[in-house]
Each structure stands twice: as structure tokens, then as C-alpha cells.
Amino acid sequence: MIQPHGGKLVNQILSGDELDDAVARAATLEKLTISDVLTSDIQNIARGVFSPLAGFVGKDDFESIATNDRMVDGTVWTIPIILDVPEQDTVKPGQEVALCREGEAEAMAILKVAEVYDWDKQAATKAFFGTNDEHHPGVGGMYSRGDWLVGGDIFLIDNDRGPFADVNLFPAETRKVFEGKGWESVIAFQTRNVPHIGHEFLQKSVLGFTDGLLVQPLIGKKKPGDFRDEVIIAAYQTLLDNYYASDRVFLNILPTEMRYGGPKEAILHAIMRKNYGCTGIIIGRDHAGVSDPDGKPYYGEEDAIHIFKDFPDMAIEPFSIAGDFGYCTKCNNVSSDRMCPHQDQYISFSGTEIRQAIINRDTVPEQVMRPEVLECILQFDEIFVE
User: Fold this and answer.
1) pLDDT (tens digit, 9 = 90+) per residue, 29-48?
2) Does residue 281 contact residue 316 with C-beta atoms inside 8 Å?
3) CA angle, 175 then 176 then 181, to 5°
4) How many CA atoms lie within 13 A of 216 on its CB side?
5) Which pLDDT tens digit goes with each residue over 107-136?
6) What is the mean pLDDT of residues 270-284?
7) Whole-angstrom Cα distance, residue 267 to residue 159?
8) Is the four-CA dihedral 44, 46, 50, 54 of positive or negative sign?
9) Domain co-membership, 10 together with 129
10) Does 196 lie in the same domain as 321?
11) Catalytic hit among 11, 68, 132, 193
12) Which one from 47, 145, 175, 192 is the annotated catalytic residue?
């Protein structure tokens, strides 16, 4: 099986006597309130999703990532996992801090503070997102953070799997699943949308080159207009139950926020899937991309595909199928401008058009979305993030 990123699968989940001791100790420590986004980051660090990180990055690694897309030791990393505080003296190096969710007294984790450092937000956002435009959700998110960052290891106390526990296996667990199925090669499919026929075509195409497919919706903070988590999961469960060979596909969520970092986030997505045990990842056009208020994309359509050439030591292989896809009514199947000359007879897989039809509670052509999937989606009263 593919090695975890950096060579070691991190486990910072406390259990047994260590857990009991940490709970007692946390009750005596100074508390630091954390956001929902940081809660997911802490859990992902502890569960090995962000291996080899055992905590929030320090100053040297932060600056190395911004400059070289690698940590100081040379490990590929493109968007750092950070903990921010409003003031330099909020916490101090050498201090243990109890990390608590907003409104909760009990600690979810303990942080061992290694350092507190300032950061240049404009330089950072330009390095990670390629822009300083505050309309970009990733840039806006970083600008809203505190002026000081904290580096240090975390130790997870509350390992609750959340509302989708049955499809929230951790990297060590998915690796066991893949091993039990005899899958030596596994390709991941990253999504933040409900599935349409184009997605199905892409997923089933790569199944001809791999032992198994991991369908992994990203669950967490999204921008307004995105599909709600529960809608995405239910839609995929419906699709897989009706149209996929059950012994060749596995559904499991990835609880993390979308950063909309385009090509650099594509690399981060690949790192996380590598830790889950995947040997490949499907990278679509405009992967993790977003547009400005005027509709102009921040990234080129294939930037997220081409960036993998800059990281030949990643080990996990990107898969992409080039072309402008649609359902060809002449060929009577999914096609692209590389496969047939009938582009004037295509039915589009436009996400905007699909969203608008669902908003209006209209039908979507069967050539675009499976009727069972559409029926499942329309059963929800609230379909989109507001």
C-alpha cells in the first residue's frame, strides 16, 4: 500500500490512561475558543489526514510553504494548516492550552504551544491563492484571521465522528478497508457537488484502471450556493446503490473546509487522499476553483492538472480526462470535443444550469442526472448553503 505523506501516518488521538490524564489536566488549563473550521483542522491533524503534521505549522515551515510549496524538510505542502490568535500574548511558548469549541466548557484537544509568530497576510494570500482579491473566499477567510499564528502539536480528546459517522472513517481505517478488499490501487474522486452523468462517466472510466474507487465528498464550510452536506451524501448513496458495482466503490467523507485554492488546493487534496491510502486522484477542470463577482475565474481551467508536473515526488498519481464534455444526442452517450464532432448537439453538464433547475424544482434531463438522484435531492427542503 502507498506510504502516507512524509512516510508516517500521524495519530494524535488520546485513549486509555492518556485520555483520562488529559481530561483532568485540561480542566486546569487556560482555555482557547476555536471555530468550527479549526475544529475540523484539529481532528484531521490528530486522525492523520494531514500527515505528517502533528500540529499547526510553525514559522519556518509556514514561510517555506509560502516560498517553495514545501516544508523545511522538503515535504511537499502548498497551503499551510494554521491556528490564529488576536494578540501575541494570547498564548505563550511552552504553555499547554485547552482548545474548546465555542460555547463549550470541556476541551476537545490540548495544544502544546511551540511558538507564536506574526505573518504578512497579503504576501501569504498571494502565495497560496495567487491573488489578494478579498472577494476570493480563501483570501477573505485568511484576512479575517488574527494577526498572530501559533505553532505546536495537538492532542485530541474529543474524537466524535460527527453527524455522518457511518461514512467518516479515518485514514488508518480506510487503509484497512482497502487492504481487506485486496485493493492495491485506489483512485479518489473529490467532490463538493451532487453527482451528474458527467461525474459518473469520469468515475467509471477510471475504474478500468484501478482496483477500487473512493468517492469522497468534502464536508464542511462552503460558500453560499453550494449544496448542503446531507444533500451531497444522500445523492451519492442513491447513485452508488443503483448504478455501481458495490465491490469496487467506497463512499467516505472528508471533513474539511473548501479553501477554493485552485491548483495549490488540488495538491493538498491529493496529499490528504494519499494519507487515506489512495494511489491516484481524479483532478477535474477548474478543480477547487472559484470565480470573482463578475464571473471571471481566478485560475485557468487546467491549472490544477498541470501543477502536478511540478511535484514528481508526490507518489500519488493525478488522473484527468481532457476535453469539453456533454451528452451527445447523436452518439447517444457522454462525449467530448476530442471524441466526436457533434458539439452543436450536446446537452450541457453545466453546474449553473443544474442548480437553477433544482432551485426551480424543475426536471433535469436523464442525460444529465439520474432520475433517482434528482428525486433524492428534491426531497430536501433546504438544498443549498445560504
Assistant:
1) 999 999 988 999 999 999 99
2) yes
3) 100
4) 29
5) 999 999 999 999 999 999 999 999 999 999
6) 96
7) 27
8) positive
9) yes
10) yes
11) 193
12) 192
Residues 132 and 195 in one domain: no
* Domain end (from 104, 139, 156): 156
pTM recorded for the entire structure? 0.95
Say yes or no to pLDDT of 230 above 90. Answer: yes
One domain, residues 210 and 100:
no
Domain with 120, as residue range(s), is: 5-156
Assess whether 242 carries a catalytic annotation. no
Instruction: Kindly report the length of the chain.
Output: 386
C-alpha to C-alpha distance for 364 and 324, rounded to whole angstroms: 20
**Count of the separate structural domains present in the chain:** 2
Q: Are residues 194 and 146 in the same domain?
A: no
Closest CA to 321 of 287, 353, 346: 287
67-72: long-range contacts, CB 8 A cutoff, minimum separation 24: 67/127, 69/264, 69/267, 69/310, 69/311
Same-domain status, 315 and 332? yes
Of the residues 122, 156, 190, the one at which a domain ends: 156
Contacts of 131 (CB under 8 A, 6+ apart): 125, 139, 298
Is 384 contained in some domain? no
pLDDT, average across residues 270-298: 94
Annotated catalytic residue 192 = yes
Contact 77, 70 (CB under 8 A): yes
Q: Residue 336: count other Cβ atoms within 10 Å of its Cβ.
A: 17
Nearest to 118 by CA among 87, 81, 80, 149: 149
Do both 148 and 171 map to the same domain?
no
Cell of 170: 479515518
**386 is a domain residue:** no
